[in-house]
Amino acid sequence: MTEVVLQGRDERIKAVAAHGGLNGIAWLEVVSADQRTLAVEFVAPLPGQPGGLPAGPPLTAEQLRIDGGVRVLSPAVLAVSAAGTRLTVTVATAGDFSTYRLRLVASASSEAPPAGFDPALAGIDFSFKVGCPNPFDCKADGGPAEPAPADAPIDYLARDYAGLRGLMLDRLAATTPGWTERSPVDQQVMLVELLAAAADQLSYQQDAVATEAYLGTARHRASLQRHARLLDYRIHQGNNARTWLHVAVQPGSMLDGVAPLPAHTPVLTGAVPRRLDADGMAEAVQQGATVFETLHAQALHAAQNEITLHTWSHALTCLPRGCTAAMLQAPQPLGLQPGDALLLEQTLDAVNGDAERDPARRWVVRLLSVDTGHADPLDGLPLVQVRWHAADALPFALPLEAMVPVAGGSTALRRTAVARGNLLLADQGQTRVEPDALQPPTVPVEGRYRPRLRRRDLSFAQPYDDAVARAAPASTAGRQDPRAARPAVWLDDGDSLWQPRPDLLASDRLAPEFVVEMAHDRTARLRFGDAVQGRRPAAGTRFGVRLRTGNGMAGQVGADVLRQLVTPLDEVLDVRNPLPATGAAEPESAEAIRRYAPQAFRVQQRAVTEADYAAAAMRHPEVQRARCDFRWTGSWTTAVVTVDRRGGGPVNADPVFRDALAALLDGLRTMGGDVALRDPRYVPLRIELQVCLQPGYFAADVHRRLREVFSAGLQPDGRPGFFHPDAFSFGAVLWLSALQAAAMAVQGVRSVAVLRLQRWGRQPAGELQAGLLRVAASEILRCDSDANRPENGRIDFEFPA
Fold first, then answer.
1. For the chain: N or C, fewer Cβ within 10 A?
2. pTM of the complete model
């Protein structure tokens, strides 16, 4: 059984003590000055002692393990001695400042706890340095801060009415978040539209002499698409939105583990859950409902409608932030499989006990493993342990139960969160099969055939592969690349199924393929081949058309609005989308096409000089800076690329990143040459600041704030610390004035004096006198202030009395 880590142990200790047949660890204390002797207190007398639990031989040193550590890894247990409920443990060496975990195991070759010991109390976290002086509160913080939100992007090249109006509305939404009015009669909206109209008229007058022959002046979207393709630039037409659906089914019905819900099942927005037929769907669409369709078939189980999260006798009070595993109660088989999605959501407010339907307290994870071989030894309740992708780690702490107010002024223990299965992925768009979808409907005898679709707002979506999606994290399920999206329209001439393609340049003369060209008003025209590139449809052909409509940001509906399922089955109890729809994109604007298409050919597809290799490496989204040096290795020239990764991440120690970057550079390198990746050479710092306080401030409070400001991570408000890995790159110097300015910005600091500024482990080289610390072109400054790794840099603060 996988080890259980508890947030609170008191309730579980009481439950094990009341049980009378199990034993476990109650607490641990470091009792010797050399930190090598540990006193471990148990719930009941130890084996080998009078009344010991369980009955059997005493515990041995081989049955105790200590895991963890940064500088001192997993200290060995030398000897143990038992006396009543206390076990004295002697270790080979004291640990470092990190958190260790002492565990009981059945034997040296087993990971399971010994028989008779409660699995939830078979281990305990502790620190060897708990007795060391510490000016801060011993309670840990709530975890790393989230990055500060980025400023709203501004498109300085917006030139038409829609672009300028959207730009101003986006800017107003960013600067005044409380203003949500979008009605045309609103004075602020009217002013925005007047300004947008005036700017649009000015742009029109400036471009009135333009023609469709040039990219810079073309107005029709089809012209822009063709001009851009000549420059090897593919414009995108936007794409639809995706979201998760939760379907609750009736126990014992055909949908309960027997017949799966089929793919392409429509679900519509609505106020209340209900089942629709074809006529009801047509009426709802006419009234303005948005249509989504399921992307894959899914087996449903009534046991997954609502799944209870196990709390180990109320000892596990919440799933912590960053959690990637949970234990589920399974009084009956749940039917969960690896690759299934699971919803974790808060259902009750942990403070006032009100029903909670906040989408911000919901999270969908993709299961990596489902282990059904578990049970709580206290009551024999069957349990299922599930694990999910690290990319789906819980972004917030999810309370599982809490004491909430009830009628009569008292309080009661209530569950505040549940898990739900039966999740399907759905995307925006309504499938339509219409006999007269094309205008004109018949291929003429002479001339080109460029029909127009009667329906506007054609859907564009990235092709969905269920096998690939089930292996990917749930957090990536809603992401789509608009340039990889394809139009959702297919033609059938009775003999062949015609497929859409971005262009016909690589199409065979017999290939049944066509191109969709969109207009600015979202109408679509179809362009066929000329019997040289792509097949030319025969005269008199009348195509059968299947298409989907619904695209862009209009599909990004909120949570709990997809409530109407179109199905002949009456066995569905409820359907909803627990999270808002995401991933939609509007079509690329004409201004964006004119801006980026002419630059497409400038993206160099080869690396010859050192600057070429550095620029190519920086195409990777995780590379902040890169530099290259040519080295003669005896047989050929090797381009040694030193990479400064965002966030200070490793280069060669991360095989996924290393292989991706190596593949990128390998396709650009010169023949007969080689490429080698290298981690940057860091320069650790040794800094001491003398800080004088303003009256009324405590040194401990100002000290904590200074540590946060000069940290190598994120500050509590989400801003990066002074020595964040992204703050310095190759050759960046450290100015003494920058240190003083950052320290003086802390509230409570009256004055700052720099006592020491030098490289770690080296003598000063005149840095204080020069007012800065210089580094070589291939070096990067570093000051992590990590007590376990002082060689990575350290900053200290002195507070004179």
1. C
2. 0.67
